[in-house]
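From the methods appendix. Each design record in this collection lists the tokenized structure first, followed by the designed amino acid sequence. Records were kept in a plain field format so they could be parsed without special tools. The example shown here is representative of the layout used throughout.

RECORD:
FOLD TOKENS (85 positions):
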């Protein structure tokens, strides 16, 4: 439990950031999951879903929610899966 005003403020800021980061990660994971499913099932909308997933990953990287190399790895794996189908 925070005993100082500054520590209480830090806790409030941390909670806001945590919720914001969770929202970004949730959108990214959902986009990745739908893109992978579309590619695996060879759906016509696969290209659009892959594009939106890459956009969601890039957004998470820019916001600092995931690291740059992690984002690159996820995009690379998705691209290889798309090219294999």
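DESIGN:
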């Amino acid at each position: 439990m925070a005993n100082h005003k500054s520590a209480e403020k830090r806790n409030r800021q941390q909670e806001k950031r945590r919720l914001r980061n969770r929202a970004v990660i949730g959108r990214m994971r959902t986009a990745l999951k739908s893109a992978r499913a579309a590619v695996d099932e060879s759906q016509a909308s696969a290209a659009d879903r892959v594009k939106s997933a890459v956009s969601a990953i890039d957004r998470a990287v820019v916001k600092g929610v995931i690291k740059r190399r992690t984002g690159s790895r996820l995009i690379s794996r998705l691209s290889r899966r798309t090219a294999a189908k």
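APPENDIX NOTE: Residues 5-40 form the longest helix (36 residues).
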